[in-house]
Write a structure and sequence with these properties.
Blueprint: E1 27-29, E2 32-34, E3 41-45, E4 53-58, H1 62-79, H2 84-100, H3 102-113, H4 117-137, E5 144-147, E6 153-161, E7 164-168, H5 176-187, E8 191-195, H6 201-213, E9 221-223, H7 228-237, E10 243-247, H8 250-262, E11 267-270, E12 275-279, H9 285-297, E13 307-313, H10 314-329, H11 349-364, E14 368-371, E15 375-376, E16 386-387, E17 390-393, H12 400-403, E18 410-416, H13 419-427, E19 431-432, E20 434-438, H14 442-451, E21 456-459, E22 475-476, H15 486-493, E23 494-502
Helix pairs in contact: 1-7, 2-4, 2-6, 3-4, 3-6, 4-5, 9-10
Bound molecules: 2-aminohexanedioic acid (UN1).
């Protein structure tokens, strides 16, 4: 890691740890890299090669959260007054730094998270896109003016930062998702404390290092690594934290939301999905197959937007399913650092256990594993958390395999008789993040856009592939009404102030003196 000294007061010295020979990473608090007050650390391990230790990170506790929040509160005093276009310049430079380091950061990410290099390059690219998009917001952050009901009175609404923002981020998009939160919060004038997932802290360090090297002042972003109970929960409850932005499971998100509500805190939750792709009988089947494969097995199925249900019209179901199974079987699974590999490992052992558990559940419910269904343990696979690309057939809408999020390379195929039934099946779940329809009938496509209950609908493209300048999030148990990306993010990270300027030089009473 490097620094250019701009606004950066700490010195990061990599330390060799004798027992694991791993680089030691410290928390970033008030511009200084510091060890946790707990004196404890944890290891970040490559999921493709368990003997490869990516780094040793701080297992922090509530006192470290206190320090980080105090630093962020101090930095807020000046950052909120830094003109937004200047904040935007720092984000613009951050985008350039990330672009220069894209390959290294992608390799670091594949090593800590497992997904293949093409995808980790995409993850870093998403942070680059976000940096440039949010940099531009520094010259917009539009408010609005509106007429006053009184004479000689001016009315306008302006966006204000909310203060110190706490962020809890997942391991599946370990740079893109922190970038959605951090860069949106920063352009709005907030300061931040971020707790990255314990499986993938390095990518957040890399993102924050890029911000620091681009000139971000000390204390504006602070990183505290550690567990949900020791760092996440204290962050949510901390009186000095004005807002919480969380991405993760619906189960944990629910706890985060309830805790934040108890502290009267705005809280943005982005949670689970059970995303459906509808394939109608008039679809371009080869295109739908490409989409199904990418949507289901990209990121080893570990996206909240992953295609996990394919609802196929019965007229084409047999042909589609046979071809899907053949293509899933042919996928090359392995270490994502090998450019020829198409699907990497799952992030940890517990995730492959979950995939295996759902395959069992599916079989017990009467569905059929058409290919896959097992962890890969032989030969080169023995040293990592690999699971076969799995297609489950004969799935009925009410089965648990069709209702619950697996977050692994396991896709269910369901048949439908017509468009209406496809929509009914697609909507018959507790989640509502992403959806897709493959059809060449424009009427059907627009009806799907209207009727699918989800935050995102794709026509003739799979359920993954959201771009940073459009709102990202979902309905039902996927979210609590907020959006990331685009101007949706600004809505969460700013609060409206209504401003009335009376230039009449006399007392005017709203709602009363209106008839002069
Ligand atoms: C996620 O699914 O967890 O839309 C985030 C996509 C990516 C982001 C996914 N741009 O697939």
């Amino acid at each position: 890691m490097t620094t250019d000294g701009s606004g950066y007061s700490g010195v990061f010295v990599p330390e060799e740890i004798s027992h694991v020979s791993a680089q030691l990473f410290k928390n970033l608090i008030g511009g200084r890299w510091v060890t946790a007050r707990t004196g404890k650390t944890f290891l970040n391990v490559n999921p493709a090669r368990k003997d490869d230790i990516v780094g040793e990170f701080q297992a922090s506790g509530p006192e470290d959260v206190n320090d980080a929040v105090a630093a962020a509160a101090e930095a807020f005093k000046t950052w909120r007054l830094t003109p937004a276009p200047q904040r935007g310049e720092i984000l613009n430079r951050t985008g350039q730094v990330l672009r220069d380091r894209k390959e290294q950061y992608a390799r670091d990410m594949t090593r800590e998270m497992g997904k293949v290099l093409a995808e980790t390059r995409g993850d870093v690219q998403e942070a680059i896109d976000c940096a440039f998009y949010m940099a531009g917001e520094g010259r917009r952050l539009f408010g609005h003016t509106t007429p006053s009901e009184l004479r000689n009175k001016f009315a306008m609404c302006v966006r204000m930062p909310v203060g110190v923002c706490g962020m809890i981020t997942p391991w599946n998009f370990p740079m893109a998702i922190p970038s959605w939160k951090l860069l949106a919060a920063l352009i709005c004038g907030n300061t931040c404390v971020i707790k990255p997932a314990q499986d993938t802290p390095l990518s957040t360090f890399n993102l924050v290092q890029a911000l620091v090297d681009a000139g971000l002042p000390a204390g504006v972003v602070n990183i505290v690594t550690g567990s949900g109970s020791q760092v996440g929960a204290p962050l949510v409850e901390h009186a000095g934290v004005a807002a919480i932005s969380f991405t993760g499971s619906s189960e944990v998100g629910r706890q985060v939301g309830m805790s934040a509500a108890g502290h009267y805190k705005p809280c943005s939750l982005e949670m689970g999905g059970k995303n459906a792709m509808i394939v109608m009988e008039d679809a371009n089947l080869d295109l739908a197959l490409d989409g199904a494969l990418w949507g289901s097995f990209g990121t080893t199925g570990q996206r909240c937007t992953a295609t996990s249900r394919i609802i196929v019209h019965r007229a084409v179901a047999k042909e589609f399913t046979e071809k899907l199974v053949a293509r899933a079987k042919a996928l090359k699974v392995g270490d994502g650092l090998d450019e020829s590999v198409q699907m990497g490992p799952q992030v940890n052992h517990s995730q492959i256990e979950t995939s295996a558990k759902y395959c069992e559940i599916a079989k017990n419910e009467g569905a059929k594993i058409l290919t896959g269904g097992h962890a890969l343990r032989d030969g080169a696979y023995a040293n990592g958390h690999f699971f076969e690309a799995t297609v489950v057939g004969g799935v009925k809408p009410g089965m648990r395999i069709a209702q619950e999020e697996v977050f692994g390379p396991v896709v269910s195929v369901l048949e439908c008789a017509d468009f209406d039934e496809a929509i009914e099946i697609a909507n018959g779940i507790p989640f509502g993040l992403s959806t897709a329809i493959y059809t060449r009938d424009v009427n059907q496509a627009f009806r799907a856009v209207r009727d699918l209950e989800a935050g995102i609908t794709y026509v003739n493209a799979p359920t993954i592939g959201a771009e940073v300048h459009l709102p990202f999030g979902g309905v039902k148990q996927t979210g609590n009404g907020h959006r990331e990306g685009g101007i949706g993010a600004l809505e969460f990270f700013t609060t409206w102030k209504s401003v009335y300027v009376d230039y009449s030089d006399k007392l005017q009473r709203a709602q009363i003196d209106t008839e002069e």
